[in-house]
């Protein structure tokens, strides 16, 4: 129902429409709900905003990652021979051929403190285990799909691993309990309908307007970087 139709409905069946003061008895907050200028709003809604992947420079090449398909384990072998022979491919990087990378230990970091391709250890599903460098994005993406990686996956039980992560004691409700509120077990047992199931949700990203991308330009002395960031 449109606002005009809603007002007509109120006027016809319920008397006159309430005044704006009656609809908003309390003054609006100076922060919550207040109109704020979006300096990038016009550029985004008009399609003129430039994101990291929109920058192109002469001679620019493209990198596409190969991601781990196991959650934990070690890389036994990487076969990039097919990818290296594909059109436009310049290089395939992985832990076996990349040079040591410098990292300033005193610098700020988010969560990943290991250099790329530091060793053959896989710490999480989707970890970058190799990367294809090519003349076009499409060539790099196609070649990355031909890189074969053999793993020695770790065998583990998530339930027992989570149990080991709980504190030994000192929490309300007994040992090895992080928090407790109400009688959840009793309510579940007495419920007329019970659903006991394990659900798995897919990976989600909360940046749909800009995909993950970084463009770096080396001028022989300095690196200029355009990157997707938060904030």
- How much is the radius of gyration in Å? 28 Å
Beta-strand percentage range? 15-25%
- CATH-defined topology of the domain at 52-100 and 115-154 and 210-227: Aldehyde Oxidoreductase, domain 3
Number of helices: 7
GO molecular function, one term: xanthine dehydrogenase activity
Domain Aldehyde oxidase/xanthine dehydrogenase a/b hammerhead: 46-155
EC number: 1.17.1.4
Protein name: Xanthine dehydrogenase YagR molybdenum-binding subunit
What would you note in describing this structure?
The chain is an alpha+beta fold and 231 residues long. It has a domain at 52-100 and 115-154 and 210-227: Aldehyde oxidase/xanthine dehydrogenase, a/b hammerhead (Aldehyde Oxidoreductase, domain 3, Alpha-Beta Complex), CATH 3.90.1170.50. Helices cover 21% and strands 19% of the residues. It has 7 helices and 8 strands. It has a 3-stranded antiparallel β-sheet with strand order 1-5-3, covered by helices on one side. A hairpin with a 4-residue loop joins strand 7 (214-218) and strand 8 (223-227). The longest helix is centred in the first third of the chain and has 11 residues, at 3-13. The protein starts with a helix and ends with a strand. Pfam families: Ald_Xan_dh_C (PF01315). Keywords: Molybdenum, Oxidoreductase. GO terms for molecular function: iron ion binding; xanthine dehydrogenase activity. This is Xanthine dehydrogenase YagR molybdenum-binding subunit. InterPro entries: Ald_Oxase/Xan_DH_a/b, Ald_Oxase/Xan_DH_a/b_sf, Ald_Oxase/xanthine_DH-like, AldOxase/xan_DH_Mopterin-bd_sf.
């Amino acid at each position: 129902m449109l606002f005009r139709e809603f007002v007509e409905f109120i006027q016809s069946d319920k008397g006159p429409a309430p005044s704006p003061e009656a609809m908003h008895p309390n003054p609006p907050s100076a922060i919550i709900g207040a109109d704020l200028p979006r300096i990038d709003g016009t550029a985004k809604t008009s399609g003129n905003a430039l994101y990291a992947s929109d920058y192109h420079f002469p001679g620019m090449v493209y990198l596409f990652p190969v991601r781990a398909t196991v959650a934990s384990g070690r890389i036994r072998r990487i076969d990039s021979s097919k990818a290296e022979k594909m059109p436009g491919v310049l290089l395939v990087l992985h832990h076996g051929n990349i040079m040591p990378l410098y990292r300033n230990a005193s610098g700020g970091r988010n969560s990943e403190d290991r250099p790329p391709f530091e060793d053959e250890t896989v710490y999480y599903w989707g970890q970058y285990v190799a990367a294809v460098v090519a003349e076009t994005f499409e060539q790099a993406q196609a070649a990355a799909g031909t890189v074969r990686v053999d793993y020695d996956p770790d065998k583990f039980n998530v339930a027992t691993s989570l149990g080991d992560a709980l504190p030994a004691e000192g929490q309300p409700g007994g040992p090895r309990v992080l928090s407790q509120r109400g009688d959840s077990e009793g309510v579940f047992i007495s419920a007329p309908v019970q659903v006991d199931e394990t659900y798995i949700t897919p990976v989600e990203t909360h940046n749909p307007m800009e995909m993950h991308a970084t463009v770096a330009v080396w001028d022989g002395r300095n690196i200029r970087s355009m990157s997707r960031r938060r904030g």
